[in-house]
């Protein structure tokens, strides 16, 4: 009886995990290490079914002051379900050498409260799966602070280059479209 119970538990667990994976959009399948933390960000558990803005960031880029605008965007729309995810990257050679320094720029200098990951690869063959899928649905980042607006179903509705600021009317319209997708 005990063997049967254990087999039933294992089978049900595998079925539930398989069903959850099937419901999770390809874009959100995976995890990222949270900045300056032992915690991991389960992309599906955290962002599935929610509108999302994903941004590849860098601490020493001319666009780094956009952190302030990204935080304002997050604060403006978070009660409507918007999530923002910052992903530091040194792909363009402008990220800090240490997590401590990256965290200081984000959290202390710019007051970021949305989730930030540890430094990741965001372009090329070694990009993390999240950015490979973003590139497949739109285009790979060409520089720091590329912005991707993702709807509640995990589809990229718009992507924007570094020069587009977080308060740009086109980006705001895409965010509002993504927010409407969750209804």
From TrEMBL:
Which residues does the UniProt record annotate as the domain Thioredoxin? Answer: 13-180
- Which PROSITE patterns is this protein grouped with? GLUTATHIONE_PEROXID_1 (PS00460), GLUTATHIONE_PEROXID_3 (PS51355), THIOREDOXIN_2 (PS51352)
Q: Which GO terms describe its biological process?
A: cellular response to oxidative stress
Against InterPro entries, the record matches this protein to: Glutathione_peroxidase, GPX_AS, Thioredoxin-like_sf, Thioredoxin_domain
Alphabetical keyword list: Oxidoreductase, Peroxidase, Signal
Catalytic center residues: 61
Q: What GO molecular-function term can you cite, just one?
A: peroxidase activity
Q: Which Pfam families match?
A: GSHPx
* Residues spanning the signal sequence: 1-21
Q: Which family does it belong to?
A: Belongs to the glutathione peroxidase family.
| Protein name as it appears in the record | Glutathione peroxidase
